[in-house]
Amino acid sequence: MLPFRIRAAGDAALVLELPAVVDEATSARLIAIADAVRSRYGAILRDAVVGYHTLTVYFDPLAVDGAWMAGELEALAASDTASAPPSGGSVDIPVCYGGEFGPDLPDVAAAAGCSPDDVVELHTSRPYRVFVIGFVPGFAYMGPVDERLALPRRSSPRTRVPPGSVAIAAGQTGIYPMETPGGWHILGRTPLRPFDETRAQPVLFRVGDRVRFHAISAAEYARTATW
Amino acid sequence: MAITVVRAGMLTTVQDLGRWGHQHLGVPVAGPMDWYAHRLANRLVGNPDDAAALEVTLIGPELATDAHVVCATAGAEFELTAGGRSIVPGEAFELRAGERLRFGPCRAGCRATLAVAGGLAVPPVLGSRATSLISRLGPFGGRALQAGDSLPVGTGPRRPPATGAVRLAPPAGGARLRVVPGPHEDRFAAGTVEDLPARRYVVTPESNRMGYRLEGPPIVHSGSADMLSDATPVGSIQVPASGLPILLMADRQTTGGYPRIATVITADLPVAGQLAPGDWIEFVPCTRRQAVEALRERVAALQGLRP
After folding, report:
1. Within a domain: residue B43?
2. Final residue of a domain: which of B152, B183, B214?
């Protein structure tokens, strides 16, 4: 059992908080508790959202007594019944690196003291865990990125990042699902849509998934682009 | 049967009670800024509370109809004419085929709900007809209405129109909003939450359906202003490094990385939703129990029963 505390976030949400670290054990534990919460209380909860070290549950305070819900969360967090490590899915993401799709690739290479090809090699060499989904629909915060690529955010964010842009910052990587402002370093672009509200599964990822990137050519991008 | 937008007004959107159940995918809830007005307007025309309706902001639209419809507004008080007839706010009224509904000056509050009997039958997206402007999700691709847009009127489930429901008077110039401390009150100097009522904040023009940026005495963190991202409920008062708080409203993002000193109670969100740039806010701490009691009173007022 990890130490925890439960906090009120107003009258319609409770936060179960584990120690503030970014690691797989914390993430796996939160997902296990979230799964248990959904299966037991799904009918009375409006939402259950996993953060890096938190699980937030939303409810109607006239239908669900907050003190009772806090007790239920506490019992789940303190027991082992919710500790079975959930097996995340695997997602493979094709990326066309560099060029017009990856305007920051040369800068990232310079900062890391290696070639752009080395950056691609480092970015594609390991699977990343989806820790949090937020910011905009379908944006997955994934990590950890190789330390050699752990740059801080850009000093001046772009006002418009094209959808599909694959980017890194602060030890994390992610894909912009729609055109938004953004401060991450853009390495390339994927032809896939991370978010599409018309799909049966609107988002490509779930928290806990393993995501791998692989390089594709500009020709393959053009052939498979869904944008 | 459809309503056509002749003039869109400042910011007119389709809303229902929100796109719940998808926040774990990063999908904002959206929904009305004033949930009380949304429910009341729907009840006045005999709709279920979650029927889709229009949220009108400060400068209202002009609308035309091709069929006889029954409408009602609640929330902000606009001067309103239907086919040239002056409308009393808070009562259902008729708009006949070919007539126009014109919103005039807004006399009190900031946002009105216009409900139409049968509800607006725009196609739902992920189970909801709410417009999320920040994620461009919902009817019309998640944008505000434009002149020429056509809104189909539904034949949704009906119930007897409400009679005794109590209207909430929009706040005049500002409001005291009750808050439950936390979840991150311990990231600020001791006594900061208790001290909130002594600090007056003003809603700045950099405010929208996503949140209100406030100006006033900076709130000082006891440590870092950066946190690991977690879920951000509506009503959260988040405090970035500047110390100037941001009150998260209906179209907030699902997650954020700033400490949140307190959370406006559900019962007072309709009051918050009626504030406009220039209005003042004072935050007054209360307990969770008091918050639920206040919500019970609000719902009783909506049902036409005196608490």
Report:
1. yes
2. B152
pLDDT at A86: 67
Say which of B21, B125, B231 has its CB closest to residue A197: B125
B20 and B142 assigned to the same domain:
yes
Domains in chain A with CATH codes: 5-78 (3.30.1360.40), 90-224 (2.40.100.10)
Contact B24 A52 (CB under 8 A): no
> Do residues B184 and B277 share a domain?
yes
3-class state of residue B57 by DSSP? strand
- Which residues make beta-bridge pairs with B203? B214
Cβ-based contacts of A47 with chain B (< 8 Å): 20-24, 29
**Chain B interface residues (partner A, CB cutoff 8 A):** 20-29, 125-126, 134-137, 179-180, 182-184, 227-231, 233, 235-236, 253-256, 260, 263-266, 288, 291-292, 295-296, 299
Q: Is the pLDDT of residue B305 over 80?
A: no
| Residue B184 reports pLDDT greater than 90 | yes
CATH, residue B237: 2.40.100.10
Do residues B277 and B218 both lie within one domain?
A: yes
Q: From the CA of B130, how many Å to the nearest CA of chain A? A: 14
How far does the CA of residue B204 sit from the closest CA of chain A (Å)?
A: 22
pLDDT digits (tens, 9 = 90+) for B6-51: 999 999 999 999 999 999 999 999 999 999 999 999 999 999 999 9
| Domain coverage including residue B134 | 2-152
Number of independent structural domains in chain B = 2
What is the average pLDDT value for chain B, to the nearest integer?
A: 96
| Interface contact flag, B26 A58, Cβ < 8 Å | no
pLDDT value for A130: 98
In this prediction the pTM is 0.96
- Interface subset of A 130-189, CB within 8 angstroms of B: 132-139, 141, 178
Both B187 and B273 in one domain: the answer is: yes
Residue pLDDT, tens place only, B242-301 = 999 999 999 999 999 999 999 999 999 999 999 999 999 999 999 999 999 999 999 999
The two three-digit tokens of residue A142, written as one number: 């994934």
